[in-house]
Amino acid sequence: MLTKQLMEKTIRDYFDACNTGNSESIQRFFTEGGTHYFPEGSPFGVLRGSVAIGDCWARCVEELGSFWTVDNFVGDPETGKAVIEWTHFKKKVGQVLRGDEWYQFTPDGKILEIRAYYASPTHPGVIEHKVGGFDYEGRGYPLP
Predict the structure, then answer these.
(1) Domains of the chain by start residue, with CATH
(2) pLDDT per residue over 92-125, tens digit each?
(3) Model-level pTM?
(4) 3-class secondary structure for 64-80?
């Protein structure tokens, strides 16, 4: 049964796995077809599948010295939705990135989807700032 405590533990344990840089450890938190969306124009695009997600974070640990923290958590087990605030320390390049992520869980506690939102300024010439590859229209979000 999905509980708020299980959702938070899963996310915190997932972040701990990310910090090890071990792809297989990261993959176990996702459904096989799990999806991780990022802001439009990010270097990652959309990561589709647990292997792609695990391999991406393993590369970030190796190449950037990445280390992540979970700074705040809110979860609703009735809908299977959670949101966190996080910090990403890129130690090898001396950069810090902050943001939020929305999670969708399966009833058995696996991560089905993550939508990442970065704390960043708007960019000149960009008309719609959004998460890349996410079907806003299909999910019933308001459109311009």
Answers:
(1) 4-132 (3.10.450.50)
(2) 999 989 999 999 999 999 999 999 999 876 677 7
(3) 0.89
(4) HCEEEEEEEEEEECCCC
